[in-house]
Structures are given as C-alpha cells and as structure tokens.
Amino acid sequence: MNSNGRYSTPATTLIELEQVVKKYTTPVGEFTALKGIDLKINHGEFVAVLGKSGSGKSTLINMITGIDKPSSGSVFVKGTPVHALKEGAMAKWRGRHVGVIFQFFQLLPLLTCIENIMLPMDLCHLYRPHERQERARHLLEQVEMAEQARKLPSEISGGQQQRVAIARALANDPPILVADEPTGNLDSQTAESVMKLFEALVENGKTIVMVTHDSDLAQRATRKVVIADGQITHDEENIWEPPAVNWEVRERVL
Fold first, then answer.
1. Domain ranges, ordered by start, for the chain
2. Given 3.40.190.170, 3.40.50.150, 3.40.50.300, 3.30.70.260, which CATH number is that of 44-61+87-252?
3. Which of 124, 125, 128, 133 could pair with 95 in a Cys bridge, judged by C-beta atoms 3.0 to 4.6 Å apart?
4. pTM recorded for the entire structure
C-alpha cells in the first residue's frame, strides 16, 4: 500500500496510443474524430474519459477495444498491435483481453442471465464446459445477482441488467474493462453501487477505462482525461481518497 492508501503495482504501460488519427467519410465531407492522440494507461489505473457529445471519447475507446481501427497511428494493448489485427484475430484477442460494458447493457434477450455470462467463455473456448456454469454463477454472486440467474434480461431492472453486463465482461478474466457511459441509464443509487463495484475491481488489480459525461463520477476515478474536438485537452491524476469498498467483495471478486 502506498502513502496515499492505494494498493499499488509497478507502473507498467498496459495501453498505448501513438499519434492516433481517425477519419470518417460523411455525406457532407470528411470528418476527423481523433486528431493525433497520444495516450498511455498503466496497469491498475481507473481512467475516466470525459468530453461533450461528438468530442471523440467513444471513438477513442473503440480504438482501444478494436471495435474500430485508426486511419493512422498505432494502438498497443499488452504489447499487441491492435491496429494491425485482422477481423478473426481481433475477435479472439478481444474476447480474452478486454471486457466491454455498454450503456444499454447489450444482453442477448433470449438468453438467461447466467447464459449471457457463459457465452464469452463458450466463444473463446475458455474453461472446461462443466466449469463455465460454476464460474458464471460465481460472478453473479459477486455482483449480487445470483438469485436472478435463470431470469431473462427483460424480467429484471436496468440496474440489475448492468450488473449482469459487468459480470459478463469479467467472464474471461480480462485485465482491462472498458465501459461506455455505464451509469448513463441508471438512477443515482444504482450508479453509486456500480461505481463501488468498479472501485473494488480496481483495488483487485483490474484496469478500467470509463467514458462518462458526469464530472462527479469522473472524480471517483484515479485519473481524468478530457477530450475536445478530437484532442486530449486535459490529463491529470485525481487526488485519491479511500472509497467505501465492500472488503468482502474485494477479496472475492476476481
């Protein structure tokens, strides 16, 4: 534990963007969403990415996850040149190394909660078949959703769906979680519970990159990156104060 009270690990670069440019062709001409982004994120950081609508923040995380590719520049995650991966290799890489959490949950409506969590394991052929259900149930317990395991997404609340989505993102034990406005559709009390869960995950060694428009939530991260007009205009570490972590969860969550 360091002098600020954080459990620390050596500063190892986990994500690195070098001069990343992203251009799109639109009916009214070419639009440059990212303009030469340089960014390094170390292992164990909780980074909040802020910016107005259209600033480029979602495009930035799409570069990190490989959902989209840069027009020029390089993206390295754990040393892998994500910008150079072909489609098949990209899907396999993403399934093992990055857990993605969406604002609108994106749970498959015809699968139960536990089946949604098992799916990434099935697709990546991770864990033995008989272990997948056990692991999925364990993850549901960590997000306090074990009693809803056999329900369909339509049968639970939005906040509960987001908890299941977080469990799904953790299914293959990725080192990185990328969250795009994860609390945008949640009430303040549920958003608070999600943020506490994120803090517990970071305390347990996960690296989280979270897009948000909420400056108060951004203060909960260990670092804040602000994007405007496709460029990083502000990048600083937040002064960290020990959160009210559920220590039982901290010990059990991955």
1. 44-61+87-252
2. 3.40.50.300
3. 124
4. 0.82
The side-by-side arrangement of strands in the sheet containing 29-42 is: 29-42, 13-26, 72-77, 80-81
Tokens for 65, please give them.
């996850």
Amino acid making up residue 200: A
Length reported for the chain: 254
Instruction: Kindly tell me if the per-residue pLDDT of 204 is higher than 70.
Output: yes
Report, as an integer, the average pLDDT of 110-117. 95
* 22-47 confidence digits (pLDDT tens): 999 888 889 999 999 999 999 999 99
DSSP letter assigned to residue 179: E
Residue ranges of E strands in the chain: 13-26, 29-42, 46-50, 72-77, 80-81, 98-101, 176-180, 207-211, 223-228, 231-237
